[in-house]
Design brief:
Elements (H helix, E strand, L loop, with lengths): L3 E2 L9 H12 L16 H18 L5 E6 L2 H13 L3 E6 L2 H10 L4 E7 L21 E4 L1 E2 L4 E2 L10 E4 L16 E5 L10 E6 L16 H6 L9 H16 L3 H21 L3 E3 L10 E6 L7 H9 L3 E2 L10 E4 L6 H18 L1
Parallel strand pairs: 1-13, 3-4, 3-5, 5-8, 8-9
Antiparallel strand pairs: 2-10, 6-7, 9-10, 11-12, 12-14
């Protein structure tokens, strides 16, 4: 039976990425050695790092004056590393979910944090609007896509101060104007590669302004200067990320992927809105294209476990909502084929016929 992978992260990867990485694990670049045992300073792997960096810049149209680095530690380390490198005294944050809340907590260790707005009072089911960003802050931080609650900021904001974005779960899902951002970062395990590598896109002129001494490993400049090779990088995830970037380019790039993502999301949201057994959980104008959250409608709550079993029997995997929200979550990342969304819609319609 074909499996349809809706896990939120680690999550589905292109089959091309999986196949090419398996080949390299067996024999990397014709060396007769496994990718898992090759020196990261070998010319073969340096070429991988260089190509991955170049494709990042090409696919996102990253302008001059920015660096792309690959690190370990996940986005969670960036919650602290970012203010360590950028915050002189004060920063502003938009609180749209659990990961934004964690970023705020870490930033408070480095200075004053202004929470400009929050949707916590409604269980983060919308993106706050009409807030004001103080113009005396060192940067303004947003989390563009909220995997747990299913909301997304799908436009590049104009805020008058350096804009920083955690794009762990929606990077490469839409065209964007990188020049509007000072820093973009994210864990790769949701829309790019296996867990273990973190990407950071940073405008070079943001660095060296805090006046504090930063430990070598936590200093962005260290990794820029050493081209992500100051210490041993996560070799296998970086290689897998390169394969995903190649796959993205072959699909027609980010603009082409966005069209597919919109089509997939519309298919599922239309069924959620039509089917009397289900209902969406977030404001329609803020619905994510990457993580589609829904629950059983009023009167059908007792069928939640039944539907999960029903879906699993049809190869639909990873649909259980986050433990803090319950319900269902279908993660429709770039690599998820449209046929998987259609299979989920069909299952929802079948379940309706049986139970409604």
């Amino acid at each position: 039976m074909k499996k349809h992978n809706f896990y939120a992260g680690p999550s589905i990867l292109p089959q091309f990425t999986i196949d090419e990485t398996i080949k390299a694990i067996k024999d990397f670049a014709g060396t007769g050695l496994s990718l898992m045992e090759i020196s990261h300073r070998s010319k073969e792997f340096v070429a991988v790092m260089d190509e991955a960096t170049a494709l990042f810049k090409e696919l996102l149209n990253i302008p001059e004056g920015y660096s792309v680095i690959f690190l370990g530690g996940g986005a969670s380390l960036q919650f602290a590393m970012l203010p360590y490198n950028l915050m002189k005294s004060k920063a502003a944050y938009l609180n749209t979910g659990e990961w934004a809340s964690k970023a705020i907590k870490e930033a408070k260790n480095f200075g004053e944090v202004v929470e400009v707005a929050s949707s916590k009072e409604k269980t983060f089911n919308y993106i706050p609007k009409d807030y004001k960003v103080p113009q005396d802050v060192d940067y303004f931080h947003i989390t563009t896509n909220n995997t747990i609650y299913g909301t997304e900021i799908r436009k590049d904001l104009e805020v008058g101060v350096p804009l920083v974005a955690d794009m762990s779960s929606d990077i490469f899902s839409r065209p964007m104007d990188v020049s509007k951002y000072a820093v973009i970062y994210g864990g790769a395990q949701k829309n790019l590669a296996p867990a273990g590598v973190t990407f950071v896109i940073i405008r070079n002129d943001m660095l060296g302004k805090t006046g504090r001494t930063i430990p070598t490993m936590l200093n962005y400049q260290t990794h820029i200067d050493k081209e992500s090779m100051f210490n041993t990088p996560p070799v296998v995830p970086v290689y897998a990320a390169l394969q995903t970037l190649k796959w993205l380019k072959a699909q027609g790039g980010v603009a082409a992927i966005e069209k597919i993502n919109i089509r997939k999301a519309n298919l599922l949201y239309d069924e959620i809105d039509r089917n009397p057994m289900f209902k969406g959980t977030v404001a329609k104008e803020d619905r994510s294209l990457m993580n589609i959250c829904f629950v059983m409608n009023q009167g059908f709550e007792a069928h939640e476990k039944d539907f999960l079993t029903f879906a699993s029997e049809r190869g639909l995997i990873g649909l259980k909502g986050h433990r803090s929200t319950g319900g269902f979550r279908a993660s429709t990342y770039n690599a998820l084929p449209e046929e998987s969304v259609k299979a989920l819609v069909n299952a929802m319609q079948e379940f309706e016929k049986i139970k409604a």
